[in-house]
């Protein structure tokens, strides 16, 4: 059994055939899916999906750094109330994205700090996004860690200075199917370096389809390709990777 720890099932790419997507995930032996909801509409939809598929679809809620400029001072209390009133398994995604810089960098940093503070306050793991921002991500993690920080670096980009520091803090590291891409040697080297008991797997769907499906929509069933590649790179059996990454996900998200 596998767990896709990062999917965006409320995105419009899934509107037409979501029941079929869930059916294919179950047929592929997925035990659970963590759905990442990033705006009010997506949050409400994710709650409904969690009710429709109890014990299978779980909700994490956050604000992508691209939309950090939308943060309002009242949002801290709003997310706090949502996190305590509903069955939320994580906060996020949250973090920094300096690749596109769609929100001002200082605003991204502010919102990232707020979410890290809130995650520790409500005792939920943080799902952390970091793209082209490794040093600032690391600095903020160190500064905001009150000794209660739990979480995962999602869609890990391969910077092992950040990766090792995250491991030292007790965080997990998650890989997507971009580890199957021919030019992703740096990611595969990171896979090789990180202990299996600290790894998670994800699709980040609808993005980052495995090489065999590249150019098409990604979906949770394809997370099997991530597990297969990790097994190949680390010289482990597929069953070992499936069992350990599933145990890791259950431990982090308490599902």
UniProtKB/TrEMBL annotation:
<keyword id="KW-0479">Metal-binding</keyword>
<feature type="binding site">
    <location>
        <position position="129"/>
    </location>
    <ligand>
        <name>a divalent metal cation 2</name>
    </ligand>
</feature>
<dbReference type="Pfam" id="PF01026">
    <property type="entry name" value="TatD_DNase"/>
</dbReference>
<dbReference type="GO" id="GO:0005829">
    <property type="term" value="C:cytosol"/>
</dbReference>
<feature type="binding site">
    <location>
        <position position="8"/>
    </location>
    <ligand>
        <name>a divalent metal cation 1</name>
    </ligand>
</feature>
<feature type="binding site">
    <location>
        <position position="93"/>
    </location>
    <ligand>
        <name>a divalent metal cation 1</name>
    </ligand>
</feature>
<dbReference type="GO" id="GO:0016788">
    <property type="term" value="F:hydrolase activity, acting on ester bonds"/>
</dbReference>
<dbReference type="InterPro" id="IPR001130">
    <property type="entry name" value="TatD-like"/>
</dbReference>
<dbReference type="InterPro" id="IPR018228">
    <property type="entry name" value="DNase_TatD-rel_CS"/>
</dbReference>
<dbReference type="GO" id="GO:0004536">
    <property type="term" value="F:DNA nuclease activity"/>
</dbReference>
<keyword id="KW-0378">Hydrolase</keyword>
<protein>
    <submittedName>
        <fullName>Hydrolase TatD</fullName>
    </submittedName>
</protein>
<dbReference type="InterPro" id="IPR032466">
    <property type="entry name" value="Metal_Hydrolase"/>
</dbReference>
<dbReference type="GO" id="GO:0046872">
    <property type="term" value="F:metal ion binding"/>
</dbReference>
<feature type="binding site">
    <location>
        <position position="204"/>
    </location>
    <ligand>
        <name>a divalent metal cation 1</name>
    </ligand>
</feature>
<feature type="binding site">
    <location>
        <position position="6"/>
    </location>
    <ligand>
        <name>a divalent metal cation 1</name>
    </ligand>
</feature>
<feature type="binding site">
    <location>
        <position position="154"/>
    </location>
    <ligand>
        <name>a divalent metal cation 2</name>
    </ligand>
</feature>
<dbReference type="InterPro" id="IPR015991">
    <property type="entry name" value="TatD/YcfH-like"/>
</dbReference>
